[in-house]
Specification:
The chain is 21% helix and 36% strand. The protein is built from 4 helices and 14 strands. A 7-stranded mixed barrel has the order 1-2-3-8-6-5-9.
Length: 202
């Protein structure tokens, strides 16, 4: 049976379109952050998403705030994340907590020492974060992870500087028999932060 030139072109177009759609889904998507964990010394922040895993090197002021006596009062938000390549990812974060009438001077002093800005009705600390994106390795996950307190959705898209580099690699994050997340020989500690609901509604 002869196949017309038009049919061949149409077939090729369908194949290319399907490939393009797969690429687009890796570059333009809404990620759900399902679990956060941090290394004991605070130099590694792991975020487990629905689509991918992410490993970041958190800035010192973020870790200092998380480990401070303000931790239980903090709410967190992550703004839109951008890809500089298939593996390189960056984004903005914000920590904040409300000012109370009977708030102690110690809390106010700690907030100022950590770099929080006093906006009148709350203290706010913001910054940027950069890291690496990995393909999920489902074979190394043995059970349920400790989840964030609510569903948290982040928009991911290519940055204006995006340059295609190399294929994504499999995540180095595995899970121990007790459910703990592990990178190499480092056991990560679950990180519980109140997720700012106003951000998730964007």
């Amino acid at each position: 049976m002869k196949i017309s030139r038009r049919a061949l072109i149409a077939s090729g177009a369908i194949t290319l379109t399907g490939c393009a759609n797969r690429i687009d889904r890796q570059l333009y998507y809404k990620e759900i952050f399902k679990s956060l964990a941090i290394s004991p010394n605070g130099d590694t922040l792991a975020i487990i998403g629905r689509e991918f895993d992410y490993i970041f090197k958190p800035p010192a002021n973020l870790i200092a705030a998380i480990k401070s006596n303000l931790h239980s009062q903090l709410s967190a938000s992550f703004n839109t994340f951008e890809l500089d390549s298939e593996t390189e990812i960056k984004g903005e974060w914000t920590l904040q907590f409300n000012k109370e009438k009977n708030q102690s001077k110690e809390i106010a002093d700690t907030a100022r020492a950590l770099g929080f800005a006093d906006t009148g009705n709350r203290y706010v600390l913001s910054g940027s974060i950069e890291g690496t994106r990995f393909l999920k390795n489902h074979g190394t996950r043995t059970g349920e992870l400790q989840a964030t307190n609510q569903t948290y959705v982040v928009q991911v898209s290519p940055s204006s500087k995006f340059q295609s580099s190399r294929n994504l690699t499999s995540s180095p994050i595995s899970q121990g028999g007790d459910g703990a997340l592990i990178i190499g020989l480092i056991i990560l500690l679950p990180l519980i932060l109140i997720i700012n609901p106003c951000i998730t509604c964007r």
